[in-house]
Amino acid sequence: MKKNYVIVMLVVLVVSACGQKKSDKETTVRPVKTTLVESKSEIKKDFSGIVEAVDYVKLAFRVSGQIINLPVIEGQKVKKGELIAAIDPRDISLQYAADKSTYETASAQLERNKRLLARQAISVQEYEISMSNYQKAKSNYELSTNNMRDTRLTAPFDGSIEKRLVENFQRVNSGEGIVQLVNTQKLRIKFTIPDTYLYLIRANDKKFKVQFDTYSGAQFNAKLEEFLDISTDGTGIPVTITIDDPAFDRVLYDVKPGFTCSIHMSANVGPLLEENMTMVPLSAVFGETEGKKTYVWIVNGNKVERREVTVMSPTGEAQVMISSGLKAGEKIVTAGVYQLVEGETVKELN
């Protein structure tokens, strides 16, 4: 009798324990972080860029000859009109003198024939021949004058000699590079954006801030100069911006072509978006193990409800744009989305 009593008590205890565990599981409340869905129209993105010179040219002579003066060295600053190099003008000067003499003779002959034609002392044909000789002589004289001028190579703008391509007393051909001249004061910044972000560049209200790796912490306002509306080689959309910030003092910030920088871009794309588009944290979106559907957890009272959404594209700052499935003002879970189940009771964390 005593033995049977003990067995009955054990059964009662086991049943009670099972009931208690089941009750505890049913009343478990999972803490979650939440946020409200916003109809946000400002998108921010970061890109990497490189500094380039606006004025950059390889200088060359238009005539051939031997260099007799090359006063510049690499890194030297030059002013507009300053001598870069000169070639021996002797052969060209001889041709110049001959062409000048021929031109003056032809000009004088044309004037005489003009007077003789007026008195009908010569034929019209003779006058036309003198006119032809004059025009030919004038053309040769102008060419020789230009060749004489082209024996001296001068800087077309203020800049620095980036590279010297020849040595003094070297013979060069016309069109052969002598120096590479770069204007380090006029700079532009080039970077590339993915094709999917072309709509950001097209937005009317957009802003750029530039931060150079060499001068971290200092940001400067910039403006869009140009961009290519298509991706020609599949690598993205080339974009060019220029700094227009008065705080960008070149004495304090000695930025040179080739420097790297970060571009912080913000664009108000509200006019480009449909009314039902929203933005949510990237951590709120999750997908199925199999398939391409994406979801978020909607907080309805104190329970969660899974809802399918359509993701348009990432927007930067760990956010994604949702084109359908959500409305502004709805509350969603932003952390631990893979641990939740449909209808689970949750408690919001501040």
Q: How would you describe this protein?
A:
The chain has 350 residues and is α+β, with helices and mostly antiparallel strands. Helix content is 24%, strand content 37%. The protein is built from 4 helices and 23 strands. It has helices at residues 2-26, 90-118, 124-149, 198-202; strands at 30-32, 34-36, 42-53, 56-60, 65-69, 77-78, 83-87, 152-154, 159-164, 171-172, 177-182, 187-193, 205-212, 219-227, 237-243, 260-268, 278-281, 286-287, 294-300, 303-316, 319-324, 331-333, 346-348. The strands form 6 sheets. It has a 6-stranded antiparallel β-barrel with strand order 3-12-15-14-13-16. Strands 17-21-20-19-18 form a 5-stranded antiparallel β-sheet, with no helix packed on it. The chain has a 4-stranded antiparallel β-sheet with strand order 4-11-9-6, with no helix packed on it. Helix 2 runs antiparallel to helix 3. The radius of gyration is 40 Å and the shape is elongated. Residues 1-25 have low confidence and may be disordered.
Task: Please supply descriptive tags for the structure shown above.
350 residues, five-stranded antiparallel beta sheet, 23 strands, elongated, alpha+beta, single chain, 37% strand, disordered N terminus, six-stranded antiparallel barrel
Indicate the topology.
Blueprint: H1 2-26, E1 30-32, E2 34-36, E3 42-53, E4 56-60, E5 65-69, E6 77-78, E7 83-87, H2 90-118, H3 124-149, E8 152-154, E9 159-164, E10 171-172, E11 177-182, E12 187-193, H4 198-202, E13 205-212, E14 219-227, E15 237-243, E16 260-268, E17 278-281, E18 286-287, E19 294-300, E20 303-316, E21 319-324, E22 331-333, E23 346-348
Parallel strand pairs: 1-23
Antiparallel strand pairs: 2-22, 3-12, 3-16, 4-11, 5-7, 5-10, 6-9, 7-8, 9-11, 12-15, 13-14, 13-16, 14-15, 17-21, 18-19, 19-20, 20-21
Helix pairs in contact: 2-3
